[in-house]
Design a protein that fits this description.
mainly alpha, 65% helix, globular
């Protein structure tokens, strides 16, 4: 088993899984019908990405687990998603800003992963990038609309920015796993991804008349399996059917 590749695929797949589940919570609760449908479709895209990534992770692990067992039958400490994606939906502004930060990260990441020496990972990135570019267009337009909108919309999304900014640095977490994969040209340099992320974020936040927090607070731990209390509640709902009815398939 390629332990480091397996670990990286879990990080990649768990990000999509947990954020996809969070967005699915908006189904039937969107502020307008068009956005209800848009958020649900983005959630479906993310779950589709999860399936491809975790299915490949199961093959790399070689222990007989597939995407379903990896998604539904692990304990919380075994999930490697970043803390950002497990944060509560809050109001529409919080959800949109969380999505924007994630999309602005995933677009350059998938763009660079297309050149991965691992052909399967490169193929997943190529397919996922097409969807993620739309996700970024959608979320960035809403950030601008809310930030440069009414006094209330500006205040709400600025509050979301002040709260969520502390979780963004973990998107570019790098350790010995990443160093090994980078040396083998499987993944890109996290610093290169961060540079592109910063360009996108700065341009959109400037147009949205929003101010980046000046403190240096940084919350991380998700990549090592150390999560906020929110993940436990997510998994209780996400895993219920498989744990209540083991090996059930639709």
């Amino acid at each position: 088993m390629d332990k480091n590749l397996f670990e990286y695929l879990l990080r990649l797949g768990d990000d999509s899984l947990i954020l996809g589940h969070r967005l699915s919570e908006w189904c039937g609760h969107g502020p307008i019908l068009e956005e209800d449908i848009a958020l649900t479709n983005i959630a479906l895209d993310l779950i589709g990405q999860t399936n491809s990534i975790l299915e490949y992770a199961g093959k790399v692990e070689g222990a007989g687990r597939n995407a379903d067992s990896l998604a539904f039958l692990r304990f919380d400490k075994d999930y490697k998603n970043c803390l950002l994606v497990e944060q509560p939906n809050g109001d529409f502004g919080v959800t949109i800003l969380r999505q924007f930060f994630f999309d602005a990260y995933r677009v350059p990441l998938f763009t660079m992963l297309q050149n991965s020496s691992d052909e399967q990972l490169a193929a997943i990135a190529e397919k996922s990038l097409k969807e993620t570019r739309y996700h970024l267009k959608h979320s960035s337009e809403w950030v601008i609309r809310l930030g440069d909108g009414t006094d209330e919309s500006h205040a709400r999304i600025q509050s979301a920015l002040d709260d969520l900014w502390r979780y963004t640095d973990e998107l570019f977490f790098s350790d010995e796993t990443d160093a090994d994969l980078k040396a083998r040209n499987i993944i890109p340099d996290a610093a290169a991804v961060k540079t592109e992320w910063q360009k996108t974020v700065q341009a959109v936040l400037t147009e949205a008349t929003l101010s980046v927090p000046t403190n240096n607070w940084k919350f991380e731990g998700g990549r090592k399996g150390l999560h906020s209390e929110h993940l436990g509640y997510i998994l209780a709902e996400l895993q219920f059917m498989q744990r209540a009815y083991p090996n059930m398939e639709w």
